[in-house]
Amino acid sequence: MRNILLLLAILSFSTISHSSEKLEKISNIDELNYFIHTYYLQPQPELIDSAITVLGSSDIAAIPNAKMPVLMSFSCLFAQYDAAHKKKWTATIQSIPEPTKSILKQAINKTPSELLKPIPTSPQRNDMNWACFFATGDSKYLNDIIFTLKHLDNRDDFERFLTASSAKWSLSSNAKTHFIVKMSMEAMKVGDVPEMRGIAEEILNKSPRQIRDETIAIIKEQRDKGKWKQQ
Fold it and tell me: Which of the residues 32, 63, 116, 165 could staple to 215 if both were Cys, CB 3.0 to 4.6 A apart?
């Protein structure tokens, strides 16, 4: 049942509803989640120090599926600012416990491209791209996610199919709350690649739950056919 459990767990880090209100402080996990999922909409570098502190007081970094998105989120946050900011944040990182300390030390010392480059096509890479998109609003991270949709019809490679399905699910979810994502799907719906038009239509009009259920049905069908047995 690894496949079903993965499907239900993937991208918990990649979608969150948001409002237009600016945070005045970060003092708990809910505020931290909002902060890192909406940073590009209203950058507040003055709150990054408290974000580090709140993250350090939580057990988020110890959750296996959260480690890489957290690493990427903060790398993309740190990369936007100068050495003076980083010096202050480095001191704060030194004061928090492991494993969060090691993760954020890596985030502040490596660029987003260095972290993303060795990661193959996978749901994990999608999560990392979402993390950087939320931090920067840079469409190159969104485009990397969209590019994986070409694997939706793959019935031989489970990992590539799951990556494409996770992209479809997360694009559907985030198109509801992120205007840039919605507009990207609208453009794809009338774009030059005919096979992508129908996918964009589904992303815009189906609920994330419908997409998830369809994915699970495909996985079950493939298992019944004797494929993906070990997933």
Answer: 165
Q: How many residues does the chain have?
A: 231
Please list the pLDDT of the chain residue by residue as tens digits (231 residues): 344 434 434 444 555 555 557 888 899 999 999 999 999 999 999 999 999 999 999 999 888 889 999 999 999 999 999 999 999 999 999 999 999 999 999 999 999 999 999 999 999 999 999 999 999 999 999 999 999 999 999 999 999 999 999 999 999 999 999 999 999 999 999 998 999 999 999 999 999 999 999 999 999 999 998 888 655
- DSSP letter (8 states) at residue 25: -
